[in-house]
Every structure is written in C-alpha cells, then in structure tokens.
User: What shape does this take?
Amino acid sequence: VQLVESGGGSVQPGGSLKLSCSASGFRFSTCAMGWFRQAPGKERELVSTVRTSGTTTYADSVKGRFTISRDNAKATLDLQMNSLQTEDTAVYYCAADCLGWGVFSYWGQGTQVTVSS
Assistant: This one.
C-alpha cells in the first residue's frame, strides 16, 4: 500500500495550491478517502473526505475554499485549496478508509503547505 502526496509548497495569503495523492497497492475505488492536516504544536485534524459515492465533507474552517475530488480510474485524490490563510499552514496527509468504519488505516507521508507573507 502506498499513498504519495505532492503539490505542497509556499504561498502568500489569498493564494491557491492543489494537492494530489497517488494511491497504489489497494482497491482505491472501494475506499473512502480523506485529507488531514497537522500544524506545529497542534493535533491532526480532518480537513475533507470523499466517499465512494462521491459524497464530500469539509471542516468548517475550509468550507467554500477547499474542494476535494477523486479519480478512481487514475487512483488519485486531489485537494484544491483557494483563498489560503496563514492558519492553513500545516503538513497535509492523504488517507484511506477501506473498511468503511470511519477509520483511516492507510496514510501518506505528508506534504508541507506554508502560507506566509
């Protein structure tokens, strides 16, 4: 099982970034997928999820700014992040819930997003 994130970087407040996660080694299309983030000194938090049905959820802090999407044919998960704020600075992780119990058991290594002027 492998989840590899890409697309992180540094951006000024108000800017945009698109994160991508490439999955392999498991049946991507049968798993709910999610993006999490962890800022320095803070606990990891759920940012967004997308179920196999395509249903999405978002943390209140990112609603209207972030968009999650999945491509089952390519086994990829994306997170389009717009209107970035300094509070969005964190390491972002891609994760998979393949048991359907709301437990994300597969994790990527993370990609750093820094929002700073």
